Amino acid sequence: MTYCVGMVLEKGLVLMSDTRTNSGVDNISVFRKMFHWRVPGERIISVMTAGNLATTQAVISRLEERTKAPEDRQNSLLGLPTMFQVASETGKLLRETVRETQDNNGSRGRGRFTASMIVAGQIAGMEPRLFMIYPEGNFIEASFDTPFFQIGETKYGRPIILRGYDREMSFEDAVKLLMVSFDSTLKANLSVGLPLDLMVIARDQFEPTHARRIEQTDPYFDAISSSWSDALRAAFHSLPDYSFYQPHEDAE
Amino acid sequence: MTYCVGMVLEKGLVLMSDTRTNSGVDNISVFRKMFHWRVPGERIISVMTAGNLATTQAVISRLEERTKAPEDRQNSLLGLPTMFQVASETGKLLRETVRETQDNNGSRGRGRFTASMIVAGQIAGMEPRLFMIYPEGNFIEASFDTPFFQIGETKYGRPIILRGYDREMSFEDAVKLLMVSFDSTLKANLSVGLPLDLMVIARDQFEPTHARRIEQTDPYFDAISSSWSDALRAAFHSLPDYSFYQPHEDAE
């Protein structure tokens, strides 16, 4: 499994992904699921992946290959004129890759080898944008109303993001929010695991403002994980108490 | 969809279920998913259901019918000697009902019409017990290490239960915890909805200590829902702040 989140803030983009892949619970490896490409001063584009690892690696390799062929820049992440076209081209590659493997496996391949992706980035002169790409190659874009996307094991970590997200929040608060969301997910699903990859992209910088890998022994993640239990417990006890014997009219 | 939780505490059992059923998002109804049977002073048994409504209603009707046939008490919830046999008999009925509908529909029925159940209760002279029953009719029992079961849309509301559950907690705190868990689920999945059914069964009482329906306009649920947003935000801000520029060694 996988857990990746991409978020649009007023200040820019924040991305986090885990790195655990598994084929059964007894075959666990660490693979990067967050990638980025940039043209200094002009664009930065990041892709996060969930789903079949052979599929996502093939798509990433194809995206990468295109950036190495300078004569064919028009289809490359480094040359496409808009983020919309970047999402569209990535979706097309994803659909083709999934289809190819499915077709090669005949009826046994049906419905398998799928993957989904989050594409985030900014090109000079335009806004930072965030897309979620489905295995079918079509995609949706984050909006004011839905300013973040999750892929993979999305449910455990969703309530805290729904409650904690604020478009005006600082990058530091957004990272803290994502760490809490990841911690809840890690606690509930063994197939999502540390280390995590983190990237913050400030508006109009066209480079990672902050990028690091959060390792197994990261003291900040440990602190969040243990403080969050205490903080949640305190929050819980701060709620009005339930009573069997009152009609609760005064509970408002 | 559905969300039901059953919990074993030192003091007894706490059960909560939603009541929304849907067949598509444009066909939503309210159906009870929590049922109970009792022999005063001797036993109380509750069943909660998730999954195909025709299946679960058929199982509940069959369970109910057996309790009405006094000459055939040995297979009835009111006559079976142990909670283990209650779970076993309920599982058998569930499996038979699922199979029957599947077989009646030939190959189109495969994998459909499934349901799962939580069975909770106590029979005099024995401990309160809690079981989760799979569509295949087999089942597992709650233990000291896994003292609660969820069925239906389980993921959104799970992290808070994992953090908040304490075997020694009061019934009131357990109800509060479940309300928070249900609120997170309701906020994330439209197909889980109010009203909720709540039942508390104190050890050795063999009757509902407290049972009520939490309606759309329940002031306590409203208070929990709005206070929880504030409390979570406060909890979040109480966590150590993330910083881009420190190595975080002091964050412990």
From TrEMBL, chains A, B:
<dbReference type="InterPro" id="IPR001353">
    <property type="entry name" value="Proteasome_sua/b"/>
</dbReference>
<protein>
    <submittedName>
        <fullName>Peptidase</fullName>
    </submittedName>
</protein>
<dbReference type="GO" id="GO:0005839">
    <property type="term" value="C:proteasome core complex"/>
</dbReference>
<dbReference type="GO" id="GO:0051603">
    <property type="term" value="P:proteolysis involved in protein catabolic process"/>
</dbReference>
<dbReference type="InterPro" id="IPR029055">
    <property type="entry name" value="Ntn_hydrolases_N"/>
</dbReference>
<dbReference type="InterPro" id="IPR016545">
    <property type="entry name" value="UCP009120_prtse"/>
</dbReference>
<dbReference type="Pfam" id="PF00227">
    <property type="entry name" value="Proteasome"/>
</dbReference>
